[in-house]
Amino acid sequence: MQDPRYYKRTIEKITLSSTALDKERKVRVYLPPGYNELLNYPIVYCQDGEQFYQFGRIATHANRMILDEGVEPFLIAGVAVDVMKRTSEYAPEGERFAAYKHFFAEELIPYVERKYPIQSDPKQRIVAGDSLGGTVSLHLALDYPHLFHKVLSLSGAFFPSTQERIRSIDDLSWLQLYMLIGLDEQEVKTERGTFDFLEANRTARALLEERRTVLHYEEKPGKHLWGFWQDQLPIGLKLLLQQ
What domains can you pick out in the chain, each with its CATH number? Predict the structure, then answer.
C-alpha cells in the first residue's frame, strides 16, 4: 500500500435533496484512474459512505486493483449516514427503513446515473455495507432485483426479520452475494442489545444456499470492527467485480 499512485484519487462531493427522507444527503463519488465520460462503468454503492472511505480505505484499494491487479475501472458512490437515524433507516424494524430504501432506489440511483456514465445492467451494480449496512443492502437487492444483483456484506446483521425476508423468496439464483463474518462476533454489543452475529450469518447462509444464491461466504478470525473488515474488503470487491 506504499505506492504513491494508490493515494492519488479524484472524489467528487455531491448533495442530493431527498423527498423520501425529507432531507439532503451527501454522496462522495470516486472516479477511477483514466476516467472518461465517453465510457460506461460499473459502480459500487456503499452505505456508511464516509466510513468506507476513511476506515475501509476503499478508494486506495480501488486504485491498487485497477492499476496493478487487472480489475476494470469502476466508480464508487459512498452515501453519508445520518448517525442519529442510522438504525431507524438501516434496520428492517426501523420507522424510516421503507423511506430509506425508496430514497436509495428511486432517488439516489437515478440521480447518480444521470450525472455519471454508469452501466445500467443490475449485474454491474454492487451495493455494499457493514453490520446494519449489510442488512439494508441485502434488502435493497431483494426488493429491487431490477437494480441490484450483487451485494457485499461485512458482518451483516441478518437477524429474524431478514431471515424471514429471505424465506419469502423461492429462487435467488440471480443474486450474487459476498458475506464475511468474524469468528469473534458471537457477543456483539449494539445500541439494540447484544447479538450473536456469527450464528445469524450461518443461518442466513443456509437459507440463501437453499435458494441457490451465488454465494461467497467467509468465516475468519475477527471482531465487529473496521480493523477486520478493511483488509477483507478488496477480496469481496474483486470477486463481485470480476464475475
Answer: 4-157+219-241 (3.40.50.1820)
